[in-house]
Fold this protein.
Amino acid sequence: MTAPSRKAAGWEAIRKDAASLVPPPFLRDYDAERAAFTWEAARAELDGLPDGGLNIAHEAVDRHASGPLADRDALRFVRADGEVEALTYSELARRVGLFASVLRELGVARGERVFSLLGRRPELYAAALGTLKAGSVFCPLFSAFGPDPIRQRLLIGGGRVLVTTRTLYRKRVASIRHDLPELRHVLLVDADGSPEPDTLDLTVLLDAARPVPEAVHTRPDEDALLHFTSGTTGTPKGAQHVHEAVVAHWATGRYALDLHPEDVYWCTADPGWVTGTSYGIIAPLVHGVTAVVDEEELDVDRWYRILAGQHVTVWYTAPTALRMLMKAGAERAAAHDLSALRFIASVGEPLNPEAVVWGRDVLGLPVHDNWWQTETGGIMIANYAAMDIRPGSMGRPLPGVEAAVLLRGADDAPVLRDGEAVPVGAGEVGELALRPGWPSMFRGYLGEDERYRRCFAGGWYLTGDLASRDEDGYFWFVGRGNDVIKSSGHLIGPFEVESALMEHPAVAEAGVIGVPDPVAGETVKAFVELRAGAQAGEDLRLEIIGFARKRLGAAVAPRAVEFVDALPHTRSGKVLRRLLKARELGLPEGDLSTLEARP
Ligand code: AMP
């Protein structure tokens, strides 16, 4: 089928045409629907289980597999060679039931944690949902992590099971296995009859299993997912999410992503991060739509081929990816029929207004930015399909979500008056905060109650982001209130990188910051003070970069290393990253020397 080029016809005309073909968007009257919305009503849209139980796997898969959607494609995997492997809801349910059965046979208990270290392949999806079905807790790891981040997260999470491939096991896990006494089983998805020592062949276990018919009747507030995220200091934080998060995944899938029953939906995020789980697995399946999964990494022509060939209607992607498409040039898009697309959304980093406009001009649709973070478990602020976009703005809060911008004191903490936080006026910058109570809110940082408590003040959850709100209630992202780095959409804790660098024998101390990058948003840069006797030079610089890559993985390791005679410190002796950043950017240093970033 050749559709008219959106560009040639003008996108407004095409949209008008399309309006007769596509269902009307949700949230047409923002204020009225927001006023009428309740989380209870959203929950009533789901099935639930006897005795008030709620299980994500039941809502996402089982109820569809036993209903009219049984034969519909749930997941379509696009292989490296372009071949597509589709799993219907009933086939996915079978595989999910088999994985749950394997866990049961291995004696993995309800609440115990099952980790994955896998690329986007069918086994990952069956493992995630099978773990939830069995009442255990699923924790995805980014498959580009090196051994250090993997070990740390498995240790903090007390991982009982790890599902991975032979190659990843050999390269990243075998060497740290002795440090992980709680890790009882490593399941290889591609053992091919000959697993590595101390691992099990998952295929053999699945062949011997009989699908578990029904999901465990988990309580809505029972742990379901563990997602690691990074702070400025200390170890990675394991944000705990519960089964009732699925209510928010359903509601945000409807309002922020505008999912309708016939949609073919593509979320480009890696399931090793929260977006890839909440919106790459749960939200589309809860809505019973077909989700496309690309098994490969970003490739401009491949992506356009997938959008066109799979007739993707709703596309959820990220600014770094959009910037890479923009860089490749509009003509690469023009070669494809993208007429099936009707809604594009983006998350994870600031979406530059040019990307919104580029979407409109080149893809025929503007890009709708939305905002959330690991701790919120789901989209909190969004530009909606039915409303005008304000390019550069993150949009307005979802129904059921109350957001505010709070005044910060000299110590960067919110100012409290009579125990109440103080909102700033329209257009002023403060800390973005959310009123607790939405279902996908994290319920703790695993084993770190104090760190969790510090995220709340005056009745608000503090996001750590700086923002402003305009007169019309649109929120605008200003920056991070702490030192964490966002590179290609991945949140990187500078402390984790500094710690790895300091294990190199020549490194006395390191300070790590994000430096602006036109495509990745930020890249990681390390300032390194050498030990006495070490020779600064190109050889050592490359050696340190290689050392960090081996330990942390290429996505986390610094791209640049600069040697300095002495690192600046706060009064309490912490490396003053903000000063390093100010110097790097040529900004005035002001009174930064006394500031200490919040964790
Ligand atoms: P993560 O927890 O890894 O998902 O990262 C969440 C952080 O990414 C947020 O706290 C923001 O700093 C940033 N972020 C997410 N979405 C947006 C957005 N639409 N605009 C700007 N920054 C964003």
Notes: Confidence is low (pLDDT under 50) at residues 1-9, 591-599. The CA atoms of residues 380 and 398 lie 6 Å apart. The longest helix spans residues 89-106.
